[in-house]
Amino acid sequence: MITIDLPDLAATGGLALRIADALRPGDVVALYGGLGAGKTTLARAVLAALGHHGEVPSPTFSIIEVYDPPAVRLPVVHADFYRLNAPAEAGEIGLDDYRQGAALLAEWPDHAGGFGHEPACLTIRMETRDNTRRAIVEPGPDWIERLSWT
Ligand SMILES: Nc1ncnc2c1ncn2[C@@H]1O[C@H](COP(=O)(O)OP(=O)(O)OP(=O)(O)O)[C@@H](O)[C@H]1O
Ligand SMILES: [Mg+2]
Question: Which of 11, 41, 98, 129 could serve as a FRET partner for 88 with CA atoms 20 to 30 Å apart?
Answer without folding.
Answer: 41
